[in-house]
């Protein structure tokens, strides 16, 4: 029982760290100027993106490519310009978005 509690605590701590890290990396690249977690700004809310793509095969790579190449027409007519974000940071952001 004691080990199970430690495991649960460790999982909670790692999820908390991942969420905090994802938010920091998104802020670093100014993603939050156009997106918010729970409401639309210019682009869709991260919760909307997560609901649309979470659990779908290949969604992480699809979203990474859309961020890298830019995107238009998936959430409206305002284009998201291509972003220059390294793969490691981009993966952190996309995983954080999908976890919303």
TrEMBL record:
Signal peptide (from-to): 1-18
Domain (Cytochrome c) ranges: 17-100
UniProt KW tRNA processing keyword: no
Keyword vocabulary terms for this entry: Electron transport, Heme, Iron, Metal-binding, Signal, Transport
Protein name per its UniProtKB record: Cytochrome c domain-containing protein
């Amino acid at each position: 029982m004691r080990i199970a509690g430690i495991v649960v605590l460790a999982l909670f701590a790692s999820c908390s760290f991942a969420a905090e890290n994802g938010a920091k990396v998104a802020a670093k690249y100014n993603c939050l100027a156009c997106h918010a977690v729970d409401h639309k700004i210019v682009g869709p809310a991260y919760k909307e993106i997560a609901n649309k793509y979470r659990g779908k095969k290949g969604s992480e790579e699809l979203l990474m490519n859309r961020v890298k190449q830019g995107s238009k027409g998936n959430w409206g007519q305002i284009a998201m310009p291509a972003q220059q974000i390294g793969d490691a940071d981009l993966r952190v952001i996309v995983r954080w978005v999908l976890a919303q």
